[in-house]
Structure formats: C-alpha cells, structure tokens
Amino acid sequence: RTWLAGIVSYDDHLAADGRAMEILSEHTCQGWLEGYLLTGRHGFFSCYEAFIHLVDSMFNQHAKWLKTSRTIPWRRPIASLNYLLTSHVWRQDHNGLSHQDPGFIDHVMNKKAEIIRVYLPPDTNTLLSVTDHCLRSRHYVNVIVSGKHPGLQYLNMDEAIKHCTKGLGIWQWACNDHGQDPDVVMACAGDVPTLETLAAVDILRQKLPELKVRVVNVVDLMTLQPQSEHPHGISDKDFDSIFTTNKPVIFAYHGYPWLIHRLVYRRKNHDNVHVRGYKEEGTTTTPFDMTVMNELDRYNLVDDVLDRLPQVQNKAAHIKEWLHNKLIEHKRYIREHGEDMPEIRDWRWP
Q: Which of 80, 108, 202, 329 has the smallest number of Cβ neighbours within 10 A?
C-alpha cells in the first residue's frame, strides 16, 4: 500500500511507491480510479457494499460519460470501471443494521444496458473468473458483489469459467429432476443465498426424497433480462425451459427482492416466481440469524416450498413442525452462545 508516513520494521507491505491506494474516503477513491482509467490504465475499487452509495452521483456521471463518448469516433474505449463490493448485507455480524444496504445494484441497473454489468459469484472460482473478465473488458461499469468471509467451494475452475460464460445455469450435481419436469425450481443469486438454497435442497432431499428439485444459479444478473433489453439477456424460450412456466420457483436473491420481480415480470407467464431477499430487517447478530430475520434461511425456504406444492400437503404438517422447532432452537442457541449452531456453521453439501 502507498504509505507516506513513517515505516517501522513490523509494518506489512507498506512503501512510498506502493500501488494499492487506500483511504477511508469513497469519493476520493472513485476520483483516483476514474483518473487512472482515463490515462489508459486498469484497476478496481473495493468498498463496503453499504458505503458505495457515497459515490452514487459520481457513478452516474461516469456511466453517462461512457454512453456519450461511444458516439465520438476519435475516442478509444477505456478500461472498465470495476467495483468490488464486499462486507455485504448478509455478513455484517458486528456492525449491524447501519451497514446493511444492497441497494447499489438497484441504482446501477437503471443505466443503459450497453454500459452496465452486475455479477454475483457464488464461490471463489467464479469470483476469479468474473474478475478476470471484468479487468479485461472495456467501456463498461462492472459491479461484483462478493463477501470476504470464508465460504464453500462449489465449482472447479473449468466449471466456473463455463458457468460464468453462460451467466446462469442448472447445477446438475445439485438436482434430482434427472432431466425431467421438476416439481420445484430452487434459484439463487449471491454467495449467501446460494449457501442457504443448497442447504434447503439438502433438507428437501432428506424429508421428501421423491420430490424432483431443480437448482439454478445466476451469476450474471443481466441474463434475467429479455434479449431485447440487454445483450446478456437470454431468450424467452431458454428462460421458460430453465425456470419452467407452471412450477413454483423459489428465488433466493442477494439484494432487495423487488429488482428480481421487475426483471422477471418483463417476460410473459412468470407469476410462478417467488423472490426472497433483503427486507430491511437487521441488527448486530449472527450470520445465520440475518438470513432468518429476512426469511432467506434454509428453514424458511423449505417452508415456502411446502406452501406451494399441493401434492405434499399430507406430509407438510410434520415437516413444518420440524422446521419451526429448528428456528426456535436457533434463536435460543444464539442467545445463549452468541454464535450459530454447529450444524449451521459446519454445514457442507453432502
């Protein structure tokens, strides 16, 4: 890091000519990066998700400038403005409600489709693939949202590259519909929603092994838009094939749920999509409790599935009893121990 004050023997990677610029002033960081890009170089701006709003108007001006400068024939495309948003809404265990706001995505999505890209990589390899792509790109604003807590790894590097290239896809290793018409589609976008969705699928397999479940992960948010709206959008036929038109889709999303509703309902025949996301409920609490407060946790997701499948109603009462007891057990445990239950903290895809 660039460091112009005194340097002592135990300082870590500080130098007067350091290349990592750091200051607790978001608008200064944005200005540094814009100047860096406009002089023909490359970079990215890492920031807390909640505080990136401090540069909303600066992002707005840069996005408009990119759109307008595309029409000037003598101006060459510059390297993209890349945002890496960490310390996100679902992992504010110590800061609480004041640091919980995923709304920058909503702000960004209103700009022109030829300029904007938003990525929600679910694990480390997809994060590497997405970041490699963004740093190579020109004349975009790329927003990557990824937590910095340790997390599970779902895809190897080859699988991650393919998944990120498509933007969304069926995770066949997590499905048991075996290419048939599923009973329910479990969709997810974001690292924590992906974790909770897979944990919910694990419960469904244990409690209702006969249920055919399809798992869809979205890493490129723009793929949800119609092709007519965004160059990354998938066709209506592909959308219908992946998500179905008549089976319930439980969609666990990183941010405010209304954005997904807005994207999906631009298409016909998709009132079967039910979105769960951040509902402005938060406090200083455990990681899992944040998802419980917003009904994005594995137990509430399974409960949501049961409510929407008439064929399992005879079995639903017993499963719901187990789910509700688990939620009570969770609340009692965190009050006593100040951390999540071991079965939550240590969960792995079986």
A: 329
